[in-house]
Automatic annotation (TrEMBL):
The keyword Iron-sulfur applies. This is Biotin synthase. Catalyzes the conversion of dethiobiotin (DTB) to biotin by the insertion of a sulfur atom into dethiobiotin via a radical-based mechanism. Homodimer. Belongs to the radical SAM superfamily. Biotin synthase family. Its EC number is 2.8.1.6. It is an enzyme of class 2 (transferase). Residues 40-267 form the Radical SAM core domain. PROSITE patterns: RADICAL_SAM. [2Fe-2S] cluster binds at residues 99, 130, 190, 262.
Length: 346
């Protein structure tokens, strides 16, 4: 359970995990989590929208789409120095990674010099860098890598079967192609999806199958709860059962043992008890700050207070380098070889 990394998960296997009794599923997920990570440490990132609104894509969940009338104001690409000011503030509040998002279908060549300067400037502050700019060509991916970009985020959103209910302006193959371009350039991948969009449990299993069966697991897997925004087609959807969200976190942890599983959008509507269950299920990364691109996010002070109550600690940047992560895994495996003091769930 601690060491096996698989890329051949079958849909029926994943559905069987979802169907486990809740406590049994969380027990398995917690075992996997402890075998690969410090169970009480959480990686903390801050996300900044560097270009907001007027996106030509028609994602039905997104208030930044130009296809829908929402309260999101259109804003031009942020000045480099303003981005660096925000990065300094994020570092002062304890963030170890600074993520920058732009509402583009794909970046234009005229935008790349500014984006590259942002990456270089944030790196100089001692923060990990992440960007989400839409689709990338191989050349753009190489340019970002050369600038020092650590992670690139590009979500699959949902299963291939349900994808057509979400968006029509970009194909599933387009998304997979961008992920491959990011890998080929040598960057780390941040890829996950959104739940609560009216999909079935089988679709949630299908999304996780796509991620877990990539040639290399994403280093970071954000699991987003739909944030319903007035003006978007998904504004009136029924809420997803919170326990189903926790199940999704737990299954993601089991399928991708060494990936950071991020509790991402939707935390604003989650009480402390639900977030605690998500951490128990294997979530070990969050975004914090007042906003998550264009939707509300729990305030930093609230997050720190919750960490204090749960005995959690933010991971510093140097705490999860590849060498340190491998050492943690080795220690955990050695611990697993000690005499068992509990009975496994049958």
């Amino acid at each position: 359970m601690s060491a096996v990394i698989r890329h051949d998960w079958q849909l029926n296997e994943i559905e069987a995990l979802f169907a486990l009794p809740f406590n049994d599923l969380l027990f398995q997920a917690q075992q996997v989590h402890r075998a690969n990570f410090d169970a009480n440490a959480v990686q903390v990132s801050t996300l900044l929208s560097i270009k907001t609104g007027a996106c030509p894509e028609d994602c039905k969940y997104c208030p930044q789409s130009a296809h829908y009338r929402t309260d999101v104001d259109k804003e031009r690409l942020m000045a480099v120095e303003k981005v660096l000011e925000e990065a300094r503030a994020a570092k002062a509040q304890g963030a170890s990674r600074f993520c920058m998002g732009a509402a583009w279908r794909n970046p234009k060549d005229r935008d790349m010099p500014y984006v590259i300067e942002m990456v270089k400037g944030v790196k100089e502050l001692g923060l990990e860098t992440c960007m989400t700019l839409g689709m990338l060509s191989p050349q753009q991916a190489q340019a970002l890598k050369q600038a020092g970009l650590d992670y690139y985020n590009h979500n699959l959103d949902t299963s291939p079967e349900f994808y057509g209910e979400i968006i029509s302006t970009r194909t599933y193959a387009d998304r997979l192609s961008t992920l491959q371009n990011v890998r080929d350039a040598g960057m780390k991948v941040c890829a996950g999806g959104i739940v609560g969009m009216g999909e079935s449990r089988r679709d949630r299993a299908g999304l996780l199958a796509q991620l877990a069966n990539l040639p290399q697991h994403p280093e970071s897997v954000p699991v987003n709860m739909l944030v319903k925004v007035q003006g978007t087609p998904f504004a009136e959807l029924d809420d997803l059962d919170p326990f189903e969200f926790v199940r999704t976190i737990a299954v993601a942890r089991i399928l991708m043992p060494q990936s950071f599983v991020r509790l991402s959008a939707g935390r604003e509507s989650m009480n402390d008890q639900l977030q605690a269950l998500c951490f128990m299920a294997g979530a070990n990364s969050i975004f914090y700050g007042e906003r998550l691109l264009t939707t509300a996010n729990p305030e930093t002070n609230r997050d720190l207070a919750l960490f204090e109550r749960l005995g959690l600690k933010p991971l510093a940047h140097e705490d999860y380098s590849d060498d340190v992560h491998e050492a943690v895994i080795s220690d955990a495996v050695a611990e697993q070889q000690q005499p068992v003091r509990y009975y496994e769930v049958s």
